[in-house]
């Protein structure tokens, strides 16, 4: 198993998945035009949100391109009849039955750098949602990233701990404003505090940075209306200096 999938839950141990699920439910109450029973978790990773939403009574299918992520998700959801997982490319998968809502949490949309790939991804999600259903996802706001450029370009360690395991993250961004891209070099040191062993690995990801207005147009071109942009998974107003954008769009 690759180290990213192996340690994924530790690497993101700082997240408050229950709060994020509370946010999703509030957004559904606020903006959905349909009653939500069935949710598609796009790029579900190890199934954090699928499982939390499943516990709240929704029927959830998580799809991820990584077999290893899906394997972990299935292990974690063992015994849950209303939650299932599928290995597949979300940009190429159209389900027979549509969903009432879809989510793509924690940077999934940022994987689609090229316009064609992004449109294919969004069009496929649109096909999987009923009219009036929501698509909730996060991505990067170029203005906010540029505003905090010094912080992003200076490596500074972050720590995440779960049980006896400690993860130390160091990331450095190289920002290309003209092309609206950022190359992020991330290195992780995983320390087993009980045994003292250290596992070190690194990866590079390329992210696409958007303007809020661009998002509105792209969503419209793919059959969605933009409902709202939030700065994170809290119901607070978005401002241009927020590096992240949580986008709520409704299928037309
Ligand atoms: C940063 S993880 C986020 C996982 C999860 N949504 C969460 O919040 O923990 C991004 C995930 O997107 C998946 N992914 C990337 N491209 C994909 C694609 N074309 N189809 C489905 N999943 C994809 C990756 O395998 C990875 O598990």
UniProtKB/TrEMBL annotation:
Instruction: Tell me the keywords, alphabetical order.
Output: Methyltransferase, Transferase
Q: A GO molecular function for this record?
A: methyltransferase activity
- Coiled coil location: none
Question: Which ranges carry the Methyltransferase domain?
Answer: 39-133
Q: Does the keyword Methyltransferase apply?
A: yes
Under the heading InterPro entries, the entry gives: Methyltransf_25, SAM-dependent_MTases_sf
- Write down the Pfam families for this protein, in alphabetical order: Methyltransf_25
Report the record's Gene Ontology biological process terms. methylation
Transcription regulation is among the record's keywords: no
Cite the Gene3D superfamilies for this sequence: S-adenosyl-L-methionine-dependent methyltransferases, Vaccinia Virus protein VP39
Task: Read off the PANTHER family from this record.
Answer: TRANS-ACONITATE 2-METHYLTRANSFERASE-RELATED
- Name this polypeptide is given: Class I SAM-dependent methyltransferase
Organism name: Candidatus Methanodesulfokora washburnensis
């Amino acid at each position: 198993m690759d180290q990213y999938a192996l340690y994924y839950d530790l690497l993101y141990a700082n997240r408050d998945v229950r709060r994020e699920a509370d946010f999703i439910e509030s957004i559904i109450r606020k903006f959905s035009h349909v009653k939500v029973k069935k949710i598609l978790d796009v790029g579900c990773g190890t199934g954090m949100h699928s499982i939390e939403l499943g516990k709240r009574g929704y029927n959830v299918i998580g799809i991820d391109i990584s077999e290893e992520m899906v394997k972990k998700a299935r292990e974690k959801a063992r015994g849950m009849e209303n939650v299932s997982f599928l290995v597949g490319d979300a940009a190429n998968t159209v389900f027979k039955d549509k969903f009432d809502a879809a989510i793509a949490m924690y940077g999934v949309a940022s994987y689609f750098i090229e316009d064609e790939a992004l449109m294919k991804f969004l069009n496929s999600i649109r096909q999987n949602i009923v009219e009036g259903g929501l698509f909730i996802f996060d991505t990067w706001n170029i203005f906010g990233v540029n505003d905090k450029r010094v912080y992003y370009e200076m490596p500074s360690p972050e720590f995440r701990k779960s049980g006896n395991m400690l993860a130390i993250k160091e990331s450095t961004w190289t920002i290309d404003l003209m092309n609206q891209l950022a190359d992020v070099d991330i290195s992780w040191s995983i320390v087993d505090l009980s045994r003292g062993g250290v596992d070190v690995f690194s990866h590079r990801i390329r992210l696409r940075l958007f303007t809020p207005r661009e998002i509105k147009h792209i969503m419209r071109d793919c059959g969605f209306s933009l409902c709202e942009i939030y700065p994170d998974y809290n119901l607070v107003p978005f401002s241009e200096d927020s590096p992240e954008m949580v986008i709520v769009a409704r299928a037309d």
